[in-house]
Structures are given as C-alpha cells and as structure tokens.
Amino acid sequence: MAVPLALAHATLLAASLGMHAVRTDGACGAPFDCVKIATVPRPIPMPGHALIRVNSTSVNPSDVDRVESGSCEHTTCGADVSGTVIACPACTTFRQGDAVWTMTERGAYCDYIVSGEGRLSLKPPTMSHIGSCPVSPPIEPSPSLAT
Predict the structure, then answer these.
(1) Domain containing 67: what range?
(2) Which of 86, 85, 63 minimizes the C-alpha distance to 75?
(3) In a domain, 23, yes or no
(4) Whose C-alpha in 10, 43, 99, 112 is 20 to 30 A from the C-alpha of 16?
(5) Distances (CA, A) of 7 to 12, 47, 77, 86, 113
(6) Phi and psi (nearest 5°) for 79?
(7) pLDDT truncated to tens, each residue of the chain (147 aa)?
C-alpha cells in the first residue's frame, strides 16, 4: 500500500521535531535511578486518531510496578492523560484545541500522545488539567463500534 505524500511528509516532520518521554534503563526500585528522560520521535496521528499535547498525567501503583519490572525500557510509562488536541485528521467528534482526557495504553509520560477518537472524552470544563488526571475518564466504545 502506498503511503500518501502528506502522511510521509508529516512523518518526516514529526521525526525531526522529536519530543521528551520517560523511559527506563532496565528495572529498578526506589530511588528509581533507572528512570530517564529520552528524546524520541513525535507520534503521527492516523485518520480517526488525535495528536494530543499532554498537559498533565498522574502516577498510579501500576506505573510503579512497570518501572520496577523494567517494562518501560522501550516504551513510555503512564496511562492517565489530560491534554489538548493538536490535530485530529478525519475525526468527527473532536477538533484542534479541544481539552480532552483519556487513558492510553502506549504511555502518558511524554510531551505528546496519539489516541483513537473513540477513546477520548471532553475534559469537564469545571476541572483543571491537573485536577482531572487522577480521575478516570469514562471510556466508552466509539459509536461506530456500538452494537
């Protein structure tokens, strides 16, 4: 399958921009000296997915478990995200500038994440980005997946 020129250009641009992400150098316990900040390529949203600038995230016991087991060595830890949509190609519900929250499976301790539109919820306007992260957002299936 051929890659559309616009997507190829976006991929090259994002890779050149980079972002910060929390990774580990293997497994470790307190004082968690294996935790490092790495520069990695910025993710590219596919159609129906949003690129979100992470405004806040939180640390859960499961995140600590992942650091202690070394499973953040080649991926980013964290799950809870509150942030702002930067781009959402072919999305029908969310737009650039929307304040959203979600739980990601690909790691939240970074500058940007990509999430499927069906996993996002609008952040309640009465909550700050920082205040909304410890609260689990409602995750409902995309309307197109509902039976």
Answers:
(1) 17-132
(2) 63
(3) yes
(4) 99
(5) 9, 10, 27, 16, 17
(6) -135, -40
(7) 444 555 545 544 554 589 999 988 888 888 889 899 999 999 999 999 999 999 999 888 888 888 898 888 778 888 899 999 999 999 999 999 999 999 887 789 999 999 999 999 999 888 888 877 766 554 444 444 333
Write the DSSP string, 37-82: EEEEPPP-PPTTEEEEEEEEE---HHHHHHHHHTTTSSS----EEE
Q: Give the domain CATH number at 98.
A: 3.90.180.10
> Global pTM?
0.78
137 near 102, Cβ under 8 Å? yes
Nearest 5°: the CA angle 128, 131, 133 is 110
**Using CA atoms, how far apart are residues 21 and 7, in angstroms rounded to an integer?**
23
Q: What tokens appear for 79 in the block?
A: 């799950």
- The dihedral over CA atoms of 34, 22, 47, 137, expressed in degrees to the nearest 10, equals 100
CA dihedral 144, 83, 20, 61 (to 10 degrees): -80
